[in-house]
Write a structure and sequence with these properties.
The chain has about 100 residues and is α/β, with parallel strands linked by helices. The chain has a single domain, classed as 3-Layer(aba) Sandwich (Glutaredoxin). It has helices at about 10-15, 30-45, 60-65, 95-104; strands spanning about 1-5, 20-25, 50-55, 75-80, 80-90.
Length: about 100
């Protein structure tokens, strides 16, 4: 799963051809560590319809603040440069896939 930063966010997320699921995470966050394997699996299995990236909120505070992220993990789906869905907290893979389907 790719990582993005304040510097690379616009190029990797906002101008992407596919919808992008951004995981706003932190190293100190247990639920973030819990959902990391789920995000990696979705990144590999759904690469033809959605791009999955991770953003560390501690090293990228500008992007985190710009999108009003206050809790981790926050998962946002961007389509055509705009956020179209936001989910807070770890969740099972099946539920996350359903939420992705609903947003796309």
């Amino acid at each position: 799963m790719a990582e993005v930063t304040d510097v690379t966010f616009a190029n990797e997320v906002l101008t992407a051809d596919l919808p992008v699921l951004v995981g706003f995470t932190a190293d100190w966050c247990p639920p973030c560590r819990q959902i990391a394997p789920v995000l990696s699996a979705i990144a590999a299995e759904e690469s033809d319809r959605i791009k999955v990236v991770q953003l560390d909120v501690n090293s990228s505070p500008a992007t985190t603040a710009a999108y009003g992220v206050l809790a981790m993990p926050t998962l946002m789906i961007f389509r055509a440069g705009e956020p179209v869905a936001s989910m807070v907290g770890a969740r099972p893979k099946r539920r996350l896939l359903q939420e992705i389907d609903d947003a796309l």
